[in-house]
């Protein structure tokens, strides 16, 4: 039966497995068994060739009261080069886990230009990064972004999703609304008021960004001054406001009758047509009544 060649550990001859060996040159006169090679990270006979195995005793320490070699702290769990090679992955591979199509483009760069053909898979079944954006157009000077942010997060946000706000221009604001149902609700209503400034919202995409909506018809708060008491009702104010445009709603202060001399009504006003400054009519006793129309 052929004998196994000894294992050299920097001057230490290790006999075949199961036979105790002695380090003649080690300071501590350590005695270890070849079966303890696993502690050194070398492994068993089947894992590594004994002829090629060489380790340094300086990487190990002696445990008090035990005559064995153990790896120093931080080195026992050191992985082999083979294990590290198997675990290696690029940054791109890590971040693309769970992503869609991984079809690489086929191209050739000529004079700095890469001519490629985009496959159908890239066009279909994709969700644009801008899908959750809504663009808003203020009908007048917008308020501070802090006021806008706090207001929309009070009336639009959900417990799971807050609203992000950013200015595109002085009167144009981009809102990021992650909640799909809330986003649809905001778009369905279309006209909003933020800090008493009318706001028109529209779905945002690269096409609409270059083509703002028609601003000829705008929602405006209209003040009806000196409305007779018998017309100070929802139907009465709705009837009078239609001289300025399409009735939308009453102001909350008007609904609560905070001021009886002024009624504020939200109306969609067509700016391409003449708008009234006064409304004249006769009451039941045929007296002439004049209601002033003010556009704040």
TrEMBL record:
Signal peptide annotation: none
Domain DUF4283: 129-209
Xref: Pfam families: DUF4283
InterPro entries named in the record: At4g02000-like, DUF4283
Record protein name field: DUF4283 domain-containing protein
Organism: Brassica oleracea var. oleracea
